Every structure is written in C-alpha cells, then in structure tokens.
Amino acid sequence: MTKQIRQLDRVVIRFAGDSGDGMQLTGDRFTSETAQLGNDISTLPNFPAEIRAPAGTLPGVSSFQVHFADYDILTPGDAPNVLVAMNPAALKANLADLPRGADIIVNTDEFTKRNLAKVGYQTSPLDDDSLAGYVVHPVALTSMTVGALATHQVSKKDAERSKNMFALGLLSWMYSRPYESTLRFLERKFAARPELVAANVAAFKAGWNFGETTEDFAVRYEVKPAKMKPGTYRNITGNAALSLGLVAAGVRSGLPVFLGAYPITPASDILHELSKHKRFGVLTVQAEDEIAAVGAALGASYGGSLGVTTTSGPGVALKSETISLAVALELPLVIVDVQRAGPSTGMPTKTEQADLNMALYGRHGEAPVAVIAPRSPSDCFFAALEAARIALTYRTPVILLSDNYVANGSEPWLLPDVESLPDLRVEFATKPNGEDGTTFLPYLRDPETLARPWAIPGTAGLEHRIGGLEKADKTGDISYDPANHDFMVRTRAARIETIPVPDIEVEDPDGDARVLVLGWGSTYGPIGAACRGVRQRGLSIAQAHLRHLAPMPANLGEVLRSYDKVVIPEMNLGQLAHVIRARYLVDAISYNQVRGLPFTAAELETTLEEVLKNV
Amino acid sequence: MSEPVAVKLTAKDFKSDQEVRWCPGCGDYAILAAIQQFMPELNIPRERTVFVSGIGCSSRFPYYMNTYGMHSIHGRAPAIATGLSVSRPDLSVWVVTGDGDALSIGGNHLIHALRRNVNLKILLFNNRIYGLTKGQYSPTSEVGKITKSTPSGSADAPFNPLSLALGAEASFVGRTIDSDRKHLQSVLRAAAEHEGSAFVEIYQNCNIFNDGAFEQLKDPSTRDDYLIRLEHGQPITFGADGQFCVVHPPGGFGLEVRETSAVRPEEIVVHDATVADPAYAFALSRLPGLDLRNTPIGVFRSVDRPSYDSVVQAQLAAAKATVTETPEQQLAGLLGSGDTWTIV
C-alpha cells in the first residue's frame, strides 16, 4: 500500500522499557541515524541507578528521549510526541508526560496479567478507555521478532532480546531515517558472533517492513535537515566531549595528562574514555578512594603533568582537603564534578546543580579556586580546555561543574580545527630566580599572572620544599608571621579574582528587554528555549549565561544593574542567586526546581511571562 | 631533564638551610643524620630525589633535606607520591610517615600503595604515640596505654606494622632502630635497591610523650637478649654467644624461640628474605612479645614483583609505539572518529 508522507519540523520520541530491554542503545542508534540525516538533535537518557531492578517494575524503567528538528534546538524536548513502551511499567511511568494526541507504540506481548499486576493495573489499559486520548499502536513486538528469527541459529532468549532492534526498525521507517550506520554498528558490536549480527539485522528489517506493510501505520513522517554551519559533525555526549577536551589539553600543552579517579556515577565514563588514550600519553590511575585519586593527580601535577581528577558531588566532598592543599601549593589541578542529585547518595543518575556552593566555598580556610561550567554536551569539550588553560596558566585548582544532564545528553558537534584550539604551552622553571643568581624562590610570582614558578623535580639547582604550612612570600619557607599570612591570604584571593575571563554576553534580539534571565551551566538550553517562546509571543526578554563562576566576568555587575528585573533559574535552591545578591546587591528573583530532571522550556516560559507581567 | 652528572656528594649536600625544629633529644634527629649521611652513596642526583610526607612530627622531615620535597596532608603522602612516582619513573621517591599518619588516618593509602607495589621507599617512624598533638595513644600503642585521651587506659589492640604490610602484599619489609645508625643505613640501602614498594619501620623514641618505649632494644645490658638481627643466609640466633635461636616447630604454624643448646643445629631457621610465601616473614613479625623480647630487625622480606610504575609505563610505551602521526594529527583523528557527517 502507498503510505502518506507528512512533513514535520520537529519530533520528540521517548523509548522506554525495562533496564534490560536495551532502550539506551536503541535511543542511541536512532540518534545516530538522525544525525546522519542532518537534523539538529538533543537527547536525554533517564535510567535508574540499579543495574537490573526487578524486571517489569516501575523502578526498573529506563528511557531515552530524542528531540530532532529541521532548525536549531536547545533542549531534548518537554513532552514526547511518541512513546515507545516496551512493557506496562514503561507505559505507566511515562504516560503522565505525554500530551493528548501523542502516539503510543506498545509491545502487547508484555501486557500479561502478571506484568500488569506488577505495576498495579487491575485491567489492561489497552482494553479499557484509559488511553482514549492517545493514538495507540498495539504491536506484538516480541512475538513478531521471534517469528522473524525462526530460521536463525539463535536461542529463543537471544531472539527475544532482539526486539529492541525491531522497535528501532519500525521507528526508523516511521521517520524515514537512514539506517546504514546502524547496520555497521551491529556488525561492529557483534563482530565475534556473526549469528547475532544476522539476527539483529533481521529484527531491524522486520520492524522496518512491518511499518511498510501494516495498515496501523498509515502515515510516514519526514523531518528535513536543519540549516547548520558547514563542516564535519558528530553526535557527542557531555562526558565524551569532556574527555576529548582533556586529551586536547594534553596535546595543546605538550604535557602528559594524568587522571586520578575513583568510579562514581555519573562521572565514571570519563575514566573509561581517558583510559583508552594511552597513545596520547594519557595516564589513568583508578585509585583506592576519592582522596587518593585527587592526591595522585596533585602528585602528578607536582611532577609536571596536567593533573586531573573526575568525580561527582560526594567525591568532591572527600577531595576537599587535598584541593585546599593544591591552593596552598599553587599547582595546576583540574577537578571535574559531574553533579548529581544530593545530598549523600541522593539520586545518583539524576541531575542537579547543587554543588555550586561547595565548588565556590567548600573548603577550610580562605581557599579560593576557579570554577567554570559547561552549558551543553559539546561545550564540555571547550570547558575542559578552558579549565586546563586556567589551571596551567595561573597554577591553581579549577573546578569544572558539569552535571548529569549535559554529561549523558548528546547533541551534534561541529568538529573544531585542532590548530584553532588554544595554545596551552607552559614553561617550567629552569634556573634560579633570586637576585643573587643562585637562590631559587618558589613563591616569587609572575607580576602579571601572580603565578609562582613551576619547578618540577629533576631540575638541578631548583631543589626546594613546599607544603601545606603557611609559606613566607617569595622564599616559601615556613612562616607564622601575622603580616605575611594576611598578605598570602589576600594574594591567593587576588590570584583568582584577577584571572581575566571573557565578558558575559547578553542575547536580546529586540534590544529593549527590561528583564534579564541569568543562568549557569546546563540550564542554558531550557532557558534559551523558554526565551524564544516568550519572544514568539511578542514579548522582550534578555538572556545571559555564566560560564565562569569564579572569577565572574568583570562586566557582570553592570549588566545586571541595567535591567529592571533579573531572574535566575537553577536546579538548586538558589545558590547562584545568593552569590549575585551578595556580590552585586541585585534583588534577583530565584526560580528553583530540584526534581532530578532538567527544566522544561514550558515551565520556564510560564515563569518568565509571570515576571514580565509585573514589570 | 638533563642527564645526571656524577658529582661526589656528601651528607652536607643533603642538609637544607632550614633550622631543624624537633624537640631536643628526639629520635628523629638521629634518623635525619643517618639518612643525610647515607644518601650520597646511592649516587642519585639530589634533583631526582623527592621526599613526600604527611602530617606529624616525622612529616617535617622533607623540610630538612636539600632535595625536592613536599609536606602534604595527614595520611595522604602515599597517594600523592603514587601520582608522582608513576608519572615520573626517573625519580627516586621516598615517603616519610609516622604511626598515626600511616596506620590511622592514612591506613588505606598505605595498604594500597603496598598492594600495587608502587616504586616508593616508605619510612614509618614508629614512636607508638601521637607527638605533634601532644600525647594521645596511637594505633601502635600497647593496650591499656594511659594518655591524655585514654585516662583509663586505651581499650583497642594495636597494629603490628610489619604484619599489616605483609598482609597488604608488600614486596619489601624491614625494621630498624633510630639509634643504630649502621643498621639503619644497611636496611635503607636494601630498601633503596628494591624495585617496588619498600616498607621500613623505624623504631623511634619520643622523649617527650613516650620516652623509653624501645629502651630494652637499646640498653647495652639488655639489647642483645632482646634483639634478633636478621641476616640473609644466616641461621637465626641471638643473645650472648647465640644462646637463643628461632625454630619452626613441627605441627606449628609459626616460628618460636628456643635455647640453642636444646635444639639440633639443622632445626635452626636459616633466614631467607626471598621466600615467596609471606607466611615466613609474617611469622617473624609475630615473634616479639609485649615486653619487646625477641624483636627481629633487618630485612624480613625482599621479593621480586613488577612495580606498578613499570607495568603502567610499559602499557604507555606500547601504546605510544604504535603512533606515527604528530599529536595534532592524532587529535584530529580522535575528534573525527565514530559516526560523522558533513554539511557543505
């Protein structure tokens, strides 16, 4: 039969199933196919912390949302247009997020009495009218997959496990996705087991062909490529981009990168990725604990490496004492905090921005460090380079505040030209710097950067001792002198405050906005999408986004004071708002949400419109 | 880094310009002097030598050595030194620590450094007391120790540092005494020559808070009856005219001390530090009683095992050996790997 083809400008699809159903992989493959087509993309995985929660239960539901469009988009989308529900739990867990009229594709094979009972359905929602407001497509995904693989040399279990490829095939047909990259992927993934390559490819094609032939799917959709800057792109997650940024920092500085890390969600993927890049001289140590991880990184920095440690909030808490030592030693150190919902273990796989206070202030004594935050998955690459630049140039710890949303979300990334990346080369001290020509003064500063010399072991004539005890200015000798301590504390503060960072830019296309929305980190996308929505309604609003949280841009006070109102949305209880109020005496409106999920553009839009009404 | 130039150094070359500020009479002075005198014979240039310490009286040590040095934070020296050592295999990295620093707050880092066999020389100054915080009991204090924090006597059993190190898979374990410069230097010499972690416990007197803790091992009238001087390849005998010896009683799990006259010569254990099974060195570490009788000193264990540093560096070297491009070309290749698409 001939299918009708309908053009759409944007679609949001959510794949949802049991943790063992392979939904992350399915979403990832659909995203890759979509990227090949040239749509703009933004993705949001959402999975439980349990590796395999009991099958079929609500806590075991894992989902992957992908938003793609023929224009540039900023978020993974507020609400799915299509839900793929692999079992009753996936339907129940996600139904509330669906707008009326959304398509729901359900795997009817899993809607058994037992599975329905597991999630508290008395009767099947497929049989009553509870889904009347939606377009439901009942598909016997499992049995059709098993049927399609009847002649294949695979076990029944393996055949059933291929059902995610059937679903992918169906969705790929529905949205006219090019699937060559998926076939290549399957060949790579199951290279050691050719029978599984054949089975998965067959399942994929069965799904595609099912869409083509069944009357249940009368319409096929197309989303045209987005207008994007010319160049070569890849789809990238924040954690992958951050890892590549660290590798790039090693190449551009000419220093070996040393990563000390202890496994922790959601930062472990950075350790996994960097451990693959020994060819670049990247050395990774999986330490015995968080404290050892940062200690080893600091030891490596002392020896002339770019020392890095990656963790999440609970790990930063443990590293705090060593970060203070790095402040005293004035050595480069990059601390990556992929924030997750806290306190304590909190919700390890959910996002939050609640470590800002800890990054800015969470140390004993006056221990200032530089703090920066990436705004999107691909921006993690550049943020990592910027963190390395500050650490190396100013010989200071830098905390890089990523979060679970940018770390696991993905977007297309226009690959940068390697030569255009910042030059991070450093000079180690090689000879005495004292006036007598023979003395080495480890705390004699560069007048411009206030950085002290980096004299690494192995350099003859510069043998010296450093430590956590207060040091005398210039000589670095132990000093309890009151005036010296006062001077050193103020100098350490000035070292950070005077780091030049770019001015903050304001986006105000109408030029007459009286309200400014200020954000930091991963909220850039939702805030930007909300501002667009507000402007589409004919209202003016300005957006500014902080990358540098310490020091802050020099023009920030002036920018803030030039608006009648400043709104600060954060996924915490107002940590940046506190800083802004204290530093700039601006009566900022703090808008907060701590649900472990990113803001939706719609809720921010509503909030901003409320504020605009009262200006 | 420039190649080392052979210059004959002396103890003086290893003395920094800092005033030494331990209490007068502290055992640390003797250890410092012994090490400063011993360092030149290693023929390692000063700039290639790094002392890393934690917190405590002993951890002031790096300030007094004219080498590279870092006085870090409490308990973390083995972790910091691990990062330095594994990333800089050209350096000789020494960790100076105490019984509180290494065995209490830093216990985890110590056992993992030993397990990994990081190329560190770890010197544990054991005075069985917290000195810098003015006299609380330590994890090596005897049970019932009365201190400011334990007026009724400490309730917890101490660690035996050597047993602990052996349990942590240490490849080199030794013990020596602050006041015996010759012996101290001989153990350090063996430690320095060892590839991998070398753990040396140094009995050190705190004359302020725990004076005389090891007096029986030092007093000329008792020391020969108390000390067992281990020498590789030699039967283990001690006391006046070899009055006592160490035997492995049949049916027993460990070693015991006997009157030499009461056993056949072939029953006396011949010391072999290279025995693969750590049970032997462990049994030696269990010989001393609460009164310090039968305290072995010397090298308990010295076995060959690849250092963590060497394994990691070999992996790096193997990966780098496959590289034919410049770092920038490699990076461009890495950034563009995976599924890419081009928009014109």
TrEMBL record, chain A:
It holds the Pfam family POR. CDD domains: TPP_PYR_PFOR_IOR-alpha_like. Coiled coil: none annotated. InterPro entries: 2-oxoacid/accept_OxRdtase_asu, Pyruvate:ferred/Flavod_OxRd, Pyrv/ketoisovalerate_OxRed_cat, Pyrv_Fd/Flavodoxin_OxRdtase_N, Pyrv_flavodox_OxRed_cen, THDP-binding, Transketo_C/PFOR_II. Residues 20-207 form the Pyruvate/ketoisovalerate oxidoreductase catalytic domain. It comes from the Bacteria. The keyword Oxidoreductase applies. Residues 255-475 form the Pyruvate flavodoxin/ferredoxin oxidoreductase pyrimidine binding domain. Keywords: Oxidoreductase. The keyword Oxidoreductase applies. This is 2-oxoacid:acceptor oxidoreductase subunit alpha. It comes from Micromonospora trifolii.
From TrEMBL, chain B:
Keywords: Oxidoreductase. The keyword Oxidoreductase applies. Pfam families: TPP_enzyme_C (PF02775). Residues 55-202 form the Thiamine pyrophosphate enzyme TPP-binding domain. This is 2-oxoacid:ferredoxin oxidoreductase subunit beta. It comes from Micromonospora trifolii.
